[in-house]
Every structure is written in structure tokens, then in C-alpha cells.
Amino acid sequence: MPNSSLSAPPADPCGVLEATSVFQGRWKGAVIWWLHQRPLHFGELRRSLAGVTPKVLTRQLRELERDGLVTRATAATRPPRVVYSLTPLGASLLPLFDALVAWWHAHAREIGARRASAT
Q: Is 1 within a domain?
């Protein structure tokens, strides 16, 4: 009989999956990067992210808003325009992104060579 006092190990014991889930997604990192410069309207964001569809961008923005990284405000204009801004919580990711970019620059050639030799 199994010991009922033992619980199953957590799915993410080190927290990496949970931590990265807040900016995981093809466009979330880029959205955060663009919004750290200034608040942007939906159309401005879409033009900044070549290749993103409105549906995908909307989904990514809603997830970022849900997690508290981005705020959405409707401007009192006719027609109403939505403005997205980075929250302090979202801005707290910027040092992490800087570290990731530095890591990439340090290792891009090696990774590129390995990828090329794998094909």
C-alpha cells in the first residue's frame, strides 16, 4: 500500500517553468521590449512586430495583462484607442532580458555552428 503522507514531486521543482511562463510565447518578450520604451497603441505594436497576426498579438497581450506585466487603457478619443503600457512588475523583467541578451551574444556563434552542423 502506498504511503499517503508522501506527495508527488512538484512538476517544476526549481521554478524555471513557472518563472519563464510569464514571458513564454513567440511575441511576449518583444512586446515587453517595445513597451519598455513607451506606451503603444495596438496598431503601433503590431507594426513593430513583423509577422504577428492581430489574433495572436491580442492573445499575448491578454496573457501579459492577466499576469500583471502590461496594463491596457482605453483613450477617451473617437474612435476609442487602446494604449498598452509596461507595469513596474513587467519592467522588473528587463534586467533578466539584458542578461539573456548578453548570454546570447557570448554564445551565438557556438550555437549557430552547432545548429548548422545538425542539419
A: no
Provide the residue type at 84 as one letter. Answer: Y
Domain that holds residue 103: 17-118
- The C-alpha torsion from 75 through 32 and 54 to 22, rounded to 10°, is -110
Q: Which of 26, 25, 27, 45 is nearest to 85 (CA)?
A: 45
Q: Residues 46-75, buried b or exposed e (16+ Cβ, 10 A)? A: beebeebeeeebeebbebbeeeebbbeeee
Q: Is residue 10 part of a domain?
A: no
9 found inside a domain: no
CA distance 22 to 11: 17
Residue at 37 is within a domain = yes
Domains contained in the chain, number: 1
Residue 86 has pLDDT above 90, yes or no: yes
Kindly report the pTM of this predicted structure: 0.81
Rounded Cα–Cα distance for residues 30 and 58 (Å): 14
